[in-house]
């Protein structure tokens, strides 16, 4: 169904969306949770009613306008009802995953001055423990249907009880403006205590009104949701897509493959690690093919890589060839024309099957939450899956830049979205740098947060008097104003010779190797870089079989002591990883001698949220990993 005439530019707060959406989209399904027991389906009309009931229930139980209500829960229709119900009641919510550590949740609960608490279930409440009694919490709501029970002398109701209360009370409208606080999102970050980014209704409505520059959604379009709903990236995407009348299906890592087939989504937003896992799944299937078929697949991918590079050059969309002459572009266009028939043949024989595995109805996939490695950008372009890249931070609500289907400039984060400015400055002097020169990325626009809650020093450090927000990212812009990100300022590794190394691009190149699942560079103040590598044991076993080697490979999550006794440290395996590192790093555009990885160690515990080494958007917490493996890292460089 084509989209109806929609205009949200005159509204002042997010909850105003739902009455408009209910009148426009009525019986269209808004939320579908197929993994709930039983499956939950909620129409736009029902969603608006439920949000109002939740809000009225909160008001009836004492939640005051402009109060703060903590919401510690994860993806579900009830999360969304709670999120918007809290705002509809006139309060601001304070969001975090129910799976976050106890001390972090208690810190957020206390620091945010929350007067009410909404939790996923009794398990989450019990995790918080008796410390809640020492805080000014006057009401606790369970999003489950469990019987409220606790030793706390605080009023506790479950979801059904709250909704029943809401049915019997009239909602008292609270007049809000775009300047009012909508939510506090505490950045988990990779270092230090979390800071509460204050996002206003105006910040979030900027995204609702301007993400149409990236995605043209129609009523009833299907969206697959896998990221945490409370996170700024997924959250703004959901608000926007609901405002267009889309249907959102909840999925998870375990069900993603089957859900892609079952629901054939039009849209999905995710982080680089997820696109990497889909890519690796395809590569695994290729590795399991007979040698003759593998040879054919590799041949078509080699042709395709030549073809897309020639096409990019011809269209002026190749980062490595920005200033070519008309003649050089014409030559590239001729080369692309000659390669096109072979590329089309490869599409019919190989690439089409990859598209079918991801879902044949994809209109747009969007990557955010981190840079997309070159080999992934190339892969999705080759197989004709429209993958865009957006950029932003929690503090910018979050989207500031994005590629579009008409201007999908690979290797970039795209142009600024409407009403947004980007400036590149010298990290030390803060002087604006000439176009094309790398520096610190500053951002200004209506989506920039109001500041960090109760932290004026951090706010002043992040946002200057002219409204420019310091992203902490390094990058440069093309003559056409596309942003290229090169790393995090705080992640920079300084070698003993004074050379500054940005680890992310080198790591992105290394994970192109089928034998490297994850990698983190180290080497601060050392003569050369080092690396901690989580190997892909399946690919390694396949390699050993092909080499007719009988290797004693350890099981996943084996201890470091046991790893050292296994064949992972045998000469053939060590030589393989040395060759892979050298090859991937040296073949990277812009390679310098200092980029070479001098020493490495293999570890078998993957970086993950569960073990505290990754953020919710699956970025490696470098200081945490450094601390955990400090002895191993020291031994790496002691051997040199």
TrEMBL record:
Record keyword Ligase present: yes
CDD domains, per the entry: LC_FACS_like (cd17640)
Chain segments annotated as coiled-coil in the UniProt record: none
GO annotation terms (biological process): fatty acid elongation
Keyword Cytoplasm belongs to the record: no
EC number: 6.2.1.3
Pfam families attached to this UniProt entry: AMP-binding, AMP-binding_C_3
Keyword set, alphabetical order: Ligase
Domain AMP-dependent synthetase/ligase residue range list: 21-453
A molecular function GO annotation: long-chain fatty acid-CoA ligase activity
Record's signal peptide: none
Protein name: Long-chain-fatty-acid--CoA ligase
Organism: Stanieria cyanosphaera (strain ATCC 29371 / PCC 7437)
């Amino acid at each position: 169904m084509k989209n109806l005439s929609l205009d949200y530019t005159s509204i002042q707060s997010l909850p105003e969306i739902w009455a408009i959406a209910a009148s426009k989209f009525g019986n269209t399904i808004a939320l579908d949770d197929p993994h709930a027991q039983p499956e939950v389906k909620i129409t736009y009309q029902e969603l608006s009613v439920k949000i109002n009931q939740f809000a009225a229930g909160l008001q009836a139980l004492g939640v005051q306008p402009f109060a703060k209500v903590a919401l510690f829960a994860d993806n579900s229709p009830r999360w969304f009802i709670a999120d918007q119900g809290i705002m509809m009641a006139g309060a601001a919510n304070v969001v975090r995953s129910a799976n976050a550590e106890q001390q972090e949740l208690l810190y957020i609960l206390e620091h945010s001055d929350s007067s009410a608490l909404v939790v996923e279930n009794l398990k989450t409440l019990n995790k918080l423990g008796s410390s809640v009694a020492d805080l000014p919490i006057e009401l606790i709501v369970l999003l489950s249907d469990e019987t409220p029970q606790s030793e706390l002398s605080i009023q506790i109701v479950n979801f059904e009880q709250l909704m029943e209360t809401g049915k019997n009370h009239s909602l008292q409208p609270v007049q809000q403006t775009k300047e009012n606080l909508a939510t506090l999102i505490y950045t988990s970050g990779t270092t230090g205590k979390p800071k509460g980014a204050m996002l206003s209704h105006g910040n979030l409505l900027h995204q609702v009104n301007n993400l149409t520059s990236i995605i043209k959604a129609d009523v009833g379009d299907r969206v697959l949701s896998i990221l945490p709903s409370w996170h700024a990236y997924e959250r703004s995407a959901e608000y926007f897509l609901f405002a267009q009348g889309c249907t959102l299906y909840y999925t998870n890592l375990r069900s993603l493959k089957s859900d892609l087939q079952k629901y054939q989504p039009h849209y999905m937003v995710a982080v680089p690690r997820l696109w990497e896992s889909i890519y690796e799944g395809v590569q695994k299937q290729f590795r399991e093919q007979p040698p003759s078929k593998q040879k054919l697949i590799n041949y078509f991918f080699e042709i395709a890589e030549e073809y897309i590079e020639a096409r990019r050059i011809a269209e002026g969309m190749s980062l490595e060839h920005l200033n070519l002459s008309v003649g050089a572009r014409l030559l590239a266009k001729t080369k692309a024309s000659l390669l096109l028939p072979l590329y089309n043949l490869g599409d019919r024989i190989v690439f089409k099957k990859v598209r079918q595995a991801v879902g044949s109805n994809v209109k747009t996939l969007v990557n955010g939450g981190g840079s997309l490695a070159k080999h992934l950008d190339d892969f999705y372009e080759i197989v004709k899956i429209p993958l865009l890249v957006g950029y932003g931070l929690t503090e910018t609500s979050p989207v500031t830049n994005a590629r579009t289907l008409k201007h999908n400039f690979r290797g970039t984060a795209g142009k600024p979205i409407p009403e947004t400015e980007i400036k590149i400055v010298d990290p030390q002097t803060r002087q604006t740098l000439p176009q094309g020169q790398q520096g610190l990325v500053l951002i200004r626009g209506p989506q920039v947060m109001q500041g960090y809650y109760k932290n004026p020093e951090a706010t002043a450090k992040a946002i200057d008097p002219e409204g420019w927000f310091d992203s902490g990212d390094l990058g440069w812009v093309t003559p056409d104003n596309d942003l290229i990100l090169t790393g995090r300022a705080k992640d920079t590794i300084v070698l003993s010779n004074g050379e500054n190394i940005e680890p992310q691009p080198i790591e992105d190149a290394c994970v192109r190797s089928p034998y490297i699942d994850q990698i983190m560079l180290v080497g601060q103040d050392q003569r050369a870089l080092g690396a901690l590598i989580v190997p892909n044991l399946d690919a390694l076993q396949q390699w050993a079989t092909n080499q007719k080697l009988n290797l004693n490979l350890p099981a996943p999550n084996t201890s470091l002591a046991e790893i050292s006794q296994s064949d992972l440290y045998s000469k053939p395996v060590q030589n393989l990883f040395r060759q892979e590192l050298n090859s991937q790093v040296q073949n990277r555009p812009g390679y310098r001698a200092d980029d070479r990885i001098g020493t490495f160690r293999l570890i078998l515990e993957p970086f993950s949220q569960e073990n505290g080494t990754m953020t919710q958007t699956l970025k490696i917490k470098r200081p945490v990993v450094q601390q955990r493996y400090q002895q191993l890292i020291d031994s790496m460089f002691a051997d040199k």
